[in-house]
């Protein structure tokens, strides 16, 4: 690609999240409904959702929720430990999310790879990625978030109304 920026509509960021990552072995029934019920009972706002399935059928669910206190995190861990067929459970505090709304990304092949390559070239590896036809979302360790936003602003051009940002904004 040349040095032209790609037009996008808006970037939203949220800096105070906890990432919940749950892995299920291949062949096991994932208990996504039970997991969502646990979150609903605790009134957690779900800010990020992604899932992946490996070639071996292993499933991983990534959920970003508002930053949890240590007490709430302990309660959530206890509740999620009861999920059947769960192989691994991890909660990571202090993660940040960037959500980019743009053109139909399906009509512009290479955007996903371009952003991932730019992040990796700067030593930034997203913790989780979610994509749809018109949005891309990433979760980053909070210490890498400002640099990640700078990279996105170097790749994408936003309408003037949405072009300013600061490290403390929280548009969600």
Task: Give an account of the 3D structure.
A hairpin with a 5-residue loop joins strand 3 (46-53) and strand 4 (59-66). The protein has 172 residues and is an alpha+beta fold. The protein has 2 domains: 6-14 and 95-162, ACT domain (Alpha-Beta Plaits, 2-Layer Sandwich), CATH 3.30.70; 15-94, Alpha-Beta Plaits (2-Layer Sandwich). A 6-stranded antiparallel sheet has the order 3-4-2-5-7-6. It has a two-stranded parallel ribbon with strand order 1-8. It has helices at 32-41, 70-81, 111-121, 145-155; strands at residues 6-7, 10-24, 46-53, 59-66, 88-101, 128-131, 135-141, 156-157. Mean pLDDT is 86; it is low at 163-168. The protein has 4 helices and 8 strands; from the N terminus they run E-E-H-E-E-H-E-H-E-E-H-E. Helix content is 26%, strand content 35%.
Quick rundown:
The chain is α+β, with helices and mostly antiparallel strands and 172 residues long. Helix content is 26%, strand content 35%. The longest helix is centred in the middle third of the chain and has 12 residues, at 70-81.
């Amino acid at each position: 690609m040349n040095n032209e920026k790609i037009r996008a509509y808006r970037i939203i960021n949220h800096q105070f999240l906890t990432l919940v990552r749950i892995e299920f072995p291949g062949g096991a029934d994932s208990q996504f409904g039970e997991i969502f019920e646990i979150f609903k009972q605790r009134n957690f706002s779900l800010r990020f959702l992604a899932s992946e399935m490996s070639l071996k059928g292993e499933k991983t669910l990534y959920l970003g929720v508002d930053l949890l206190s240590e007490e709430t995190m302990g309660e959530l861990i206890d509740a999620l430990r009861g999920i059947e067929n769960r192989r691994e459970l991890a909660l990571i505090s202090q993660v940040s999310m960037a959500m980019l709304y743009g053109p139909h990304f399906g009509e512009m092949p290479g955007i996903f790879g371009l952003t991932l390559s730019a992040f990796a070239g700067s030593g930034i590896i997203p913790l989780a990625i979610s994509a749809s036809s018109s949005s891309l979302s990433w979760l980053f360790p909070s210490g890498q978030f400002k640099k990640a936003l700078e990279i996105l602003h170097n790749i994408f051009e936003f309408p003037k109304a949405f072009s300013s940002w600061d490290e403390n904004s929280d548009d969600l």
